[in-house]
């Protein structure tokens, strides 16, 4: 039974073409069998001053199958230890993008942070994409719900 579950899990993998655009680029790898994400590594040494953000080069380009996206997410260790996170989290790499993957990092801390060449700077998660068909059914009113038009914080206990 355990072997069948492992085999089913392996069948969920998709092929992703990857190009190294820089000699120091590192092909991502999953660190454990249960990992949802893989790490991106910087190919440059960067100093981020407090409040500063910058696109950091990974030296990689990918070709995702149609119907998938690559989400670029923060690394919790980098956020906890250095106060650095992905600014547009999660960033999206579309299946038709072929340029270099850069990670927009911001220093939320109070002191400058040095990110070394070869340092893990973000993680990537590949996810399926569903596109909506807008305008197929245009209506004057939407179906009412208990929440209605209640916005931010409106679902909490009052």
Description of the structure:
The chain is mostly beta strands and 158 residues long. The chain has a single domain (15-128), classed as Deoxyuridine triphosphatase (dUTPase) (Deoxyuridine 5'-Triphosphate Nucleotidohydrolase, Chain A, Distorted Sandwich). Helices cover 10% and strands 32% of the residues. The protein is built from 2 helices and 11 strands. A 4-stranded antiparallel β-sheet has the order 2-11-6-8, with no helix packed on it. A 3-stranded antiparallel β-sheet has the order 4-9-7. A two-stranded antiparallel ribbon has the order 1-5. It is globular and about 55 Å long. The N and C termini lie far apart (47 Å).
Q: What would you say about this model in short?
A:
The protein has 158 residues and is mainly beta. Helices cover 10% and strands 32% of the residues. The chain starts with a helix and ends in a 30-residue tail after the last strand.
**Rg to the nearest angstrom?**
20 Å
Proportion of helical residues: 10-25%
Structural class: mainly beta
CATH superfamily heading:
Deoxyuridine triphosphatase (dUTPase)
Give the overall shape.
globular
User: Runs with pLDDT <50, length 5+?
Assistant: none
Please give the CATH class.
Answer: Mainly Beta
Distance between the termini: 47 Å
Sheet with the most strands?
A: 4 strands, antiparallel
Number of domains: 1
The tally of strands reads 11
Within the largest sheet, what's the order of strands? 2-11-6-8
Q: What is the mean pLDDT?
A: 92
Give the CATH architecture.
Distorted Sandwich
Order of helices and strands: HEEEEEEHEEEEE
Beta content:
25-35%
Say what the CATH topology is: Deoxyuridine 5'-Triphosphate Nucleotidohydrolase, Chain A
Number of DSSP helical runs: 2
């Amino acid at each position: 039974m355990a072997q069948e579950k492992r085999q089913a899990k392996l069948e969920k993998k998709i092929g992703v073409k990857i190009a190294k655009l820089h000699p120091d680029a590192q092909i991502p790898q999953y660190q454990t069998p249960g990992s949802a994400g893989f790490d991106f590594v910087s190919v440059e040494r960067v100093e981020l001053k407090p409040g500063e953000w910058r696109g950091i080069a990974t030296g990689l380009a990918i070709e995702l199958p149609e119907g998938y996206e690559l989400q670029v997410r923060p690394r919790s260790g980098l956020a906890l230890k250095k106060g650095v996170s992905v600014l547009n989290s999660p960033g999206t790499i579309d299946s038709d993008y072929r340029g270099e993957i850069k990670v927009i990092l911001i220093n939320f801390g109070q002191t400058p942070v040095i990110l070394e060449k070869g340092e893990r700077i973000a993680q990537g998660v590949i996810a399926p994409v569903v596109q909506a068909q807008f305008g197929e059914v245009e209506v004057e009113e939407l179906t009412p719900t208990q929440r209605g038009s209640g916005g931010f914080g409106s679902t909490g206990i009052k």
